[in-house]
Amino acid sequence: MYAVISSSSSSSIAAAPINSFSPISRRRKAATAISCSQTQTASFKSATATDYKNTTVLPLAGSLYEILRVERTASLNEIKTAYRSLAKMHHPDATGSSSDGRDFIEIRNAYTTLSDPMARAMYDMSLGAGVRWVRSPVYPSRRWETDQCW
Amino acid sequence: MAEPAYTVASDSETTGEEKSSPAFPEIAIGIDIGTSQCSVAIWNGSQVELLKNTRNQKLMRSYVTFKDEVPSGGVSNQLSHEHEMLTGAAIFNMKRLIGRVDTDPVVHASKSLPFLVQTLDIGVRPFIAALVNNVWRSTTPEEVLAIFLVELRVMAEVQLKRPIRNVVLSIPVSFSRFQLTRIERACAMAGLHVLRLMPEPTAVALLYAQQQQQMVHDNMGSGSEKIALIFNMGAGYCDVAVTVTGGGVSQIKSLAGSAIGGEDLLQNMMRHLLPNWEKLFSSRGINEINSMGLLRVATQDAIHKLSSQDTVQIDVDLGNGSRICKVVNRQEFEEVNNKIFEKCGSLIIQCLNDAKVEADDLTDVIVVGGCSYIPKIRNLVKSICKRELYKGMNPLEAAVCGAALEGAVASGISDPFGSLDLLTIQATPLGIGIQANGNRFVPIVPRNTTMPARKELIFTTVNDNQTDVLIIVYEGDAEKAEENHLLGYFKIMGIPPAPKGVPEIKVCMDIDASNVLRVLAGVMLPGSQQPVVPIMEVRMPTVDDGHGWCAEALHRTYGATLDLVTVQQKI
């Protein structure tokens, strides 16, 4: 009675999510306005999954660094500080936030990768190789980090 | 002017309102309903203040007596003597009973309480009753809690001179989402709107975050990140959390909890003093209840004394001709409760492991709750965490203070001195998933996932031309599905005939900002870009009673005909 698509394994718990499905209601709300004083206001929207595919130019548009508004060379401390201050703005519980949580999930995912030295190195490599990094499911420790559904 | 929008409240009892309505900027109060004691606190504009009842108590006993026509609780009622609570007319420990079915071991342990807890052991709600004029008058944990909450509400309204509607409640980590709906139900019965339900140690973590933030402001500490372990053990529950704090943001890294507490220590000790006490009192006549009450009070008293002295003399006349006269030492108490203490230790270790934190990484170790006075508990936490304990908190008030802080933050109140510049980033205390691969539990949102969250997994059919699949949603960490808490179930129908393993059934779980769980399920066939049947979106939990029974009935009716299995990612 067990049926497994991939012939390789019957170890079931380890199934992984896939990254695409038809777009039905990916974002219930438009991207919330970003009140940050910095310049890259557009980065938020471009960070969502659909836009990864649709945006074509700008090598770093929507990169995890842009989501966290830090330099490519940022230290771990800078990344943590950036994450916390962004969380205070975009977490749905934060005072004055009108977010439904999608923005925070993006920030959280970016932080999860960039705060892990191994994951960050892998990500940097993928950027360097000119590959658009779309939270690859192959990547072992990030298996659960996707917010995409439909 | 736009026409006013009329909306229907959700049918499920969980409140559907998202955050506080800005039209009514009242500050939510924080309530800590303990198994044994409860308290209320509020942000008074500059700090958190605990409210006192008319007898000047900040901590009130959590019980309701059904002695008179109008039931009265521990907020307003004055007990002439401790024994009065144990005559059969008072219901207490409702936090251990709420939202549990009659097969639950915690419910069975509650049968030794001096009121009626009856079970039929078929997975339905237990029967609970208070003895009033020699009549067992039935009630429910929700009703008892609601009576109590009304008293708390009245007390707060009188003191604050305004109506109270919004509350932040602290709850045990191990509570399932079904239990949360029961708490919300009790609040609704009391006319209260739940703004947040905070796992107790996360409320303590918020208080800690504020204290650390304050130190930075006062230039007493560095602004760097601090990692704290919080151990909270009361009468009913033991909870552990690891939090990473910096800049007023408390990120919960891991949570662990279990329904063990002072009540278990007490029952083990009663069993030690009078080995066949459960049998002696099983008939539940008035005399037995009275004897049981006397033993309970004497044992509780002895345990309290053993926190400060090495031996204690117990001398109690049970009124039925038997008398217990015994000297008990601290070592005996610790041996009798060895299993409980071991479990406490394992929760701490699990929490550290889940947070990927070593004991050496901890900045502070915070022990709170009624059991924090027990030397064995303090030593246990100290030895595992290799640290002295944090001293900046009142162990009995920390949780309610944290809840009150969250109440102010969640109500959108800001403080000119930045004292409310705080944020808690919560994590899921239990995994949420579905039954698949036979009777296995397959988590889709693993334990300790940062919220809000959205996760998904792909499943497929087990039979050729299987047109229907049954999605049974559970919450917990056990490998076998039925050992977890059932949250609900639904069927996806109309899958086009295909060989087994071909249809992709995508199950997505979404926990939004209000901690509302939605389960979405859709079917894809290879080559199609659109789902082949409309996607199902179900708000969980959908079960209201008799869950154990339902799961068994589903299994008996459908067997494996509507089963699912997980799919390996195609690389």
Automatic annotation (TrEMBL), chain A:
Q: Which InterPro entries match?
A: DnaJ_domain (IPR001623), J_dom_sf (IPR036869)
Q: Which GO terms describe its cellular component?
A: chloroplast
Which residues belong to any copy of the J domain? 63-127
Q: Which PANTHER family match?
A: CHAPERONE PROTEIN DNAJ 11, CHLOROPLASTIC, CHAPERONE PROTEIN DNAJ 11, CHLOROPLASTIC-LIKE
What is the name of this protein?
J domain-containing protein
UniProtKB/TrEMBL annotation, chain B:
Keyword ATP-binding among UniProt keywords? yes
Annotated region Disordered: where?
A: 1-21
Under the heading Pfam families, the entry gives: HSP70
Q: Which UniProt keywords apply?
A: ATP-binding, Nucleotide-binding, Stress response
Tell me, what is one Gene Ontology molecular-function annotation carried by this entry? ATP binding
Source organism superkingdom: Eukaryota
Family of this protein: Belongs to the heat shock protein 70 family.
**Protein name, UniProt field:** Heat shock protein 70 family
Species name: Corchorus capsularis (Jute)
Biological classification of the source? Eukaryota, Viridiplantae, Streptophyta, Embryophyta, Tracheophyta
